[in-house]
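[audit] Reproducing an earlier prediction to check determinism. Same input, same settings, fresh worker. If the tokens differ from the archived copy the diff job will pick it up downstream; this log only records the rerun itself.
[audit] input (90 residues):
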Amino acid sequence: MMDRKDRFKHESLQDRKTIQSLLTAINRGIAKGELHFSDETGEITLEPKDLLNLKVTATKDEGRCRLDVRISWTPDADTPKDAGKLKVKS
């Protein structure tokens, strides 16, 4: 959903395979330096460069699980704080 010209937001119910494909596309876009998001309501293109800030939050509460992955960057910004090396096991 596009609520502002410089913001893109989308929410939908997807199966694991589709989410895996979307995450693979995001991975390729980060490697390429260009991410393009679109749906029926809008679109946005982002250009990740240099150092990116990664924030991962995983919670399990009252039978509901949630995984938030946030990647942010600011052109020409100071080095973001570092909490050490992230380990993810599958």
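[audit] rerun output stored. Observation attached for the diff report: The CA atoms of residues 20 and 26 lie 10 Å apart.
[audit] end
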